[in-house]
Design a protein that fits this description.
The protein is α+β, with helices and mostly antiparallel strands and 221 residues long. The chain has one domain: Glutaredoxin (3-Layer(aba) Sandwich). The chain contains 9 helices and 6 strands, in the order E-H-E-E-H-H-E-H-H-H-H-H-E-E-H. The strands form 2 sheets. It has a 4-stranded mixed β-sheet with strand order 2-1-5-6. A two-stranded antiparallel sheet has the order 3-4. It is globular and about 50 Å long. The two termini are 20 Å apart. The model has no long low-confidence stretch (mean pLDDT 95).
């Protein structure tokens, strides 16, 4: 008999390690499908909340934000591509890619959660940005992505044209900041156990088994 597991996946649409972490988690849950019945909720986090609508060149942005050189940024992208390949995701970003504001994408994800389509929208947003070079702040692209996974196109456009779900997203962002989340991905199991970073599949499997054992009052050998 499988046990229920609530998962809060705190992440941003433009975070490559969040892609690695998500697909590592999903593969772990597939391995554990007979042991746990997981329910994933995607929670918002903005890496660049003040980013303007035009975005910024990724190499320039990383250099300004972290002091990384172009060579270091290139090495980081190569490492991310390798980790992505391990979990079946093809990153196609390069030194000419851009960083964008993701607030409207988070508003759509909030709505998708109400419609039971958060996971497919999250995956589609990741693919659009990291594999197809899309702009997650562009309303036309966001509307098309929403429609592609079965959400109502007109409703998506209406949400994006308004401030709908803006307050809810900001409240959720503040909640997770207050809970101590300062980097993403942060994966919180049953509201109390956190795993941070784009961890490998085996790490998630081990962590989940440990958490479920502790929940049952047992130990893991």
């Amino acid at each position: 008999m499988s046990s229920a597991l609530k998962i809060d996946f705190v992440s941003d649409v433009s975070c490559p390690w969040c892609v690695v972490g998500l697909y590592g988690l999903l593969q772990a849950l597939e391995i554990l499908r007979d042991e746990v019945q997981a329910e994933i909720h995607f929670q918002p986090f903005e890496l660049n909340p003040k980013m303007g609508p035009e975005g910024q060149n990724i190499t320039e942005h990383i250099q300004q934000k972290y002091g990384s050189t172009a060579e270091q940024s290139q090495k980081n992208r190569e490492a991310i591509r390798a980790r992505g390949a391990d979990v079946g995701f093809a990153f196609r970003t390069d030194g000419n890619s851009r960083i964008y504001n993701t607030f409207d994408a988070h508003r759509l994800l909030h709505w998708a959660g109400l419609e039971g389509l958060q996971l497919p929208l999250k995956e589609a947003l990741f693919k659009a940005y990291f594999a197809d070079g899309g702009n997650p702040s562009d309303h036309a692209q966001l509307t098309q992505i929403a429609e592609s996974i079965g959400l109502d196109r007109q409703r998506a456009a209406a949400i994006l044209a308004s401030d709908e779900f803006a307050d809810e997203v900001r409240e959720e962002e503040q909640l997770w900041l207050q809970r101590g989340v300062s980097s993403v991905p942060t994966v919180v199991f049953n509201g109390q156990y956190a795993v941070t970073g784009g961890q490998p599949v085996d790490t998630f499997v081990g962590a989940i088994r440990q958490i479920m054992s502790e929940a049952r009052g047992g130990t893991v050998s």
